[in-house]
Structure formats: C-alpha cells, structure tokens
Design brief:
alpha/beta; single chain; six-stranded mixed beta sheet; 2 domains; 36% helix; globular; binds NADP nicotinamide-adenine-dinucleotide phosphate; Rossmann fold
C-alpha cells in the first residue's frame, strides 16, 4: 500500500490557537513570531481511505508559516526550506507521495524546487483542483439557469497554475471570457495560447472590479492575501466559484448579496470511512481537491511527482479526473463559507435575483 502525506499551514496566526490553546489570548504579533520559529510537525494520522480497488493511509504535516509569511514576510528560500523540512518528516513517516497544501504550493516555483530536494513524489494537487473548480462552476451555473455557451466567464488569477487551465477550459465553452491578473505581460501570453487553442480572444484586465458587472460566472483563484472579488459589484443571479485559500471573497461582504450564488471550489467527498483526526473546517469525509489528488495518486500507486510548476497540462487534468472517478472521489454538494448550500437555498437566491 502506498502512503501519502499532506502539508498544511496556518492561513492566519490565529489558526494555531486551535492546536496550541495556550496561545489563544496572545497578541497577534506574538502568535506570528511563535509560528515562524516553530519547527514543522506531524499533525495527525489519516486512516480509512478506501476505494473499490485499493486502500491508503497518510499524515497531515504542518509547515508553520502563515499566508502572510509564506508570500512575503519571509524569503522564498526560507519558506521553501521549511516546506522541504516538512517533506522530510513525511518521508520519515513512510509517505511515498506528499501534497503541498494552500500557499505551500504557490510559493516560489510551485513545487519544483521542493520536489528536487525530496526523495518521495510531490504534487501541488492543482490538476484535480482545476477539474473540480470547473465541474463546480458548471454545476452551479446550471442550478442558476445559466447556459455557459451564453455566459460571460471571468477568471480572476488567470495566469496562475490553476487559473490558466481553468481559463483554457472555459475558453472552449463560454460565449465571452475575461482574464484578470495584475501582470499584463503574463496575461498577454496566456491570451495568445488560448487564441491558438480555441480561436477566441479573451478580454484581459488588471482591474478586477471592472470585470465583475457583466460577469455571469466568476472563477476566483488568486494567491492574494486579501479578498479581491467584491460581490457587491456582481449582477443579480451571478455565480462565483471561490477556489482561493485564503479566500478571494469576504464572507461579510457576501452577506450583502443574497441574490448571487457563491460556492467554495475544490470540495470533494473521499471514498471509504476516512478519519482525518484534524479539523480543517469540513464535515466528515470531505477534503480539499488538492488533498484528494494526493490520496488518489497514493491509491493508484502513482507516486512520482505530479502537478508541479505553473504549466499544468490539460491531459493531466483529464487523467486525474478519470483516476479520481475510478477510486470513487466525487464533487461534494455545494458549500459556501463552510456551510452546505441546499437546493432550497439556491431556489431562494434565484427568487431574490428575479429568476424563475
Ligand atoms: N481549494 C483547493 O482545493 C485549492 C487547492 C490548491 C490551491 N488553492 C488555492 O488556489 C489559489 C491559487 O493557487 P495557484 O497555485 O494557482 O497560485 P499561482 O500560480 O501563484 O497564481 C495566482 C494567480 O493570482 C493572481 N493574483 C495574485 N494576486 C492578485 C491580486 N491581488 N489581484 C488579481 N490577481 C492576483 C496572479 O497573477 P498576478 O501576480 O499577475 O496578479 C496569478 O494569476 C491559492 O489561494 C491556493 O491556496 C486551493
């Protein structure tokens, strides 16, 4: 049986108070320092992942650096060193493949250097994250009565590892596509690629706000530390699939728009009777798509490096979709800000948006 490990990090310093309760009342700056100087550690033993074809078990390993530290407050070298240290713990625990969670997959060259320094396979989990983000966006659109072939799709973070492939896939389906990121040169490159592949020319902009007013579907997948998609600017009945962690949409602001559907991207049901022994905010048996990709690869015994770097191939997205389905992983019901979104809730949103 191949085993896996998955590297987590605290999104904000407050997250460590869940594990180290004595830090609960500390000021923010103390918590930040505590996190930065903590060594990586095993968090939990994950058991019960079982498909019709195989079983696996694994570990959560924490890389104690907050989002802010990973993307700026420490150098990329320091961050990568700590991620590799966490990877060595995974090796010692007997994992054959390790997944890089949240921003540990974003820092530096998206896993390439980390993989070079570890003996076991490494994946960012981004191929299955793309697959599930696109599946969730399609399904959410359908529930809101939006035909993608008639829709304006906006991908925010469209030059990133996940966003690029979401954009390339949506280019084959949408009536109109707008790509958003801050670096216009990189946007021009992806636009040329989409033009060659699909024969359409997407609009590009660095101004997220300007792209939202006419959007029917927004796939939000930036690595921004703060929320960048303002739901107040959306038209009634629009759909947002927020894949980013930290999130791109603020829960507080989202409450002001009960007439738009905002769903979490990349939430997956795991086959078997998985026990994560760690609360990362999901109900039992559900995981992020990037965790799921790592489990799928372990179940399949495919433990070499997988989704690395910022040029994920469409073939790899297709392959992991097929393997995940083979092992019984599936898109979980819709969730929004850690709560289930029922069909009744969607009906309410449609009514508020003035849709039949
Ligand atoms: N839900 C899941 O299962 C799951 C799995 C894996 C990753 N993730 C999350 O997905 C997100 C993206 O990951 P990735 O690997 O694709 O990252 P990435 O390769 O670094 O790409 C990030 C993208 O966001 C853009 N961006 C960054 N800041 C921005 C801002 N302020 N405004 C507009 N665009 C901005 C970047 O372009 P510019 O720099 O040019 O702006 C780039 O296009 C991260 O939050 C990660 O934690 C979620």
């Amino acid at each position: 049986m191949a085993k896996f490990a998955f590297i987590l990090h605290p999104i904000v310093a407050d997250d460590i108070a869940r594990k180290f309760k004595f830090t609960k009342r500390w000021p923010e700056s103390w918590k930040e320092k505590f996190v930065r100087f903590m060594p990586p550690l095993k968090v939990s033993h994950i058991t019960g992942v079982r498909s019709e074809h195989a079983a696996t078990e694994g570990y959560f390993v924490a890389c104690p650096l907050t989002s802010r530290q990973l993307l700026g407050e420490v150098t990329a070298d320091e961050a990568i060193k700590k991620i590799v240290w966490a990877g060595h713990i995974a090796e010692r625990l007997g994992a054959d493949i390790v997944g890089l969670g949240a921003l540990t997959s974003v820092v530096g060259d998206a896993g390439i250097t980390v993989a070079e320094k570890l003996k076991i396979g490494v994946t960012t989990g981004n191929s299955y994250t793309v697959a599930t983000a696109v599946m969730a966006s399609r399904l959410a659109a359908k529930k809101m009565g939006i035909e993608i072939s008639e829709a304006h799709v906006v991908v925010v973070g469209a030059t990133g590892s996940i966003g690029q492939v979401c954009a390339r896939l949506m280019a084959k389906e949408a009536r109109q596509l707008t790509l958003v990121a801050r670096n216009l040169d990189r946007l021009a490159q992806i636009t040329r690629r989409i033009g060659d592949e699909s024969g359409i020319t997407p609009a590009v902009t660095a101004d997220v706000n300007a792209s939202l007013a006419t959007a029917d579907i927004v796939i939000a997948v930036t690595s921004a530390l703060d929320c960048v998609v303002d739901p107040r600017l959306l038209k009634p009945g629009a759909v947002v699939c927020d894949v980013a962690r930290p999130r791109d949409v603020s829960e507080e602001v989202a409450k002001l728009r009960p007439d738009v559907l905002i769903v979490d991207g990349g939430v997956v049901e795991v086959p078997g009777d998985v026990n994560f022994r760690f609360n990362f905010g999901f109900p039992p048996r559900m995981s992020y798509a990037c965790m799921a990709e790592t489990m799928v690869l372990a179940l399949e015994g495919k433990v070499g490096d997988y989704s690395l770097g910022r040029d994920i191939s469409l073939e790899q997205v297709e392959e992991i979709t097929r393997l995940a389905a083979k092992h019984g992983f599936k898109l979980a019901g819709f969730r929004s800000f850690e709560r289930a979104v029922t069909d009744e809730k969607i009906a309410e949103i449609r009514t508020r948006a003035g849709l039949r």
